[in-house]
Structure formats: C-alpha cells, structure tokens
Amino acid sequence: MRRWAPWVALVVVVAVALVIGIRDREPKTDAERVQAIAESVACPACSGQSVASSDVAASRNLRADIERRVAAGEGADEIRAAYAARFGDDILLNPPRSGSAALVWIIPVVVVVAAGAGLTLAFRRWRRDW
Q1: For residue 127, what pLDDT is reported?
Q2: Which residues of 74-98 are buried (b: 16+ CB within 10 A; e: fewer)?
Q3: Under a CB-based contact definition with an 8 Å cutoff, are residues 27 and 14 in contact?
Q4: SS3 of 1-23
Q5: Which domain holds residue 117?
Q6: What is the DSSP letter of 75?
Q7: Do 70 and 37 meet the contact criterion of CB atoms below 8 Å apart?
C-alpha cells in the first residue's frame, strides 16, 4: 500500500484540479455575460482576435449585437449558435465539443495518457534492469 500512496495522492490532486478547472463559472451581470461571449467569438475581419479585443467596425457591430441579444434574454449558447449558423464554426474561438471537432478536445487527453503510460513502462523497465 505504501508503494501506491503517492500515486493515489497524485490522482486525487489531479482530479480535484480538474473539477475546479471545469466547474461552471457563469458571469453574473449582463456586462460580464457580454464580455464573456465577445471573448469567445472571433473577429470576422481580423486574424486571431476576439470580438472583445478588436476595435474594427465589424467587431463593434458584433459587440452591440451581443449586448442587444443579452438584454433580450438570449443565452450564451444561443448567441454563439446564431453566429456559427451565420458565419460558420470558424467564428467560434472554442470549437464545438461534438462531432469531428471533438477531436480537438480528445486527442490531447489521449496523448497525455499514452505518454504517462509509456513513461510508467519505461521507468519500470529501467528500475528492473538497474
């Protein structure tokens, strides 16, 4: 059991960190909601900038539209879906987590797990040979 205690502790720490990292932190005020949505939508006229950080006319118009939609009671997912339908999924800075776009979220996890398993096997062989 002593041999596994550090590994169990590591798993617990990683699990707690993941839970804290993924818990839903929904913005409370309308201004915070507008800012959060604007940060997740790409500027259609800029390269690599969000609507929140860009000051071109297209971004200003989208920010005003986001404000109007938030004031009308639309949810963040609804607003993002409307922009994705209008401009395509490339307008979203965070790719969808379903379909083929889910690979963007899954592949890094698989790589990390495989690397961890490979390191574990390598260390066991090294320890046995030493």
Answers
A1: 80
A2: bebeebbeebeeeeeeebbbeeeee
A3: no
A4: CCCCHHHHHHHHHHHHHHHHHHC
A5: 96-130
A6: -
A7: yes
For residue 21, tell me if it sits in a domain. no
In this structure, the answer to whether residues 33 and 88 fall within a common structural domain is: yes
pTM: 0.59
Residue 122 to residues 7, 54, 127, 129, 130: CA-CA distances in angstroms? Answer: 16, 48, 8, 11, 12
Q: Which token pair is 52? A: 């929140």
The reported pLDDT for the residue numbered 78 is 93
Rounded to whole angstroms, the Cα distance separating 21 from 101 reads: 21
Residues ≥6 apart with Cβ < 8 Å to 89: 95, 96, 101
**How many domains are contained in the chain?**
2
Query: What's the CA gap between 84 and 78, in Å, rounded?
Result: 10
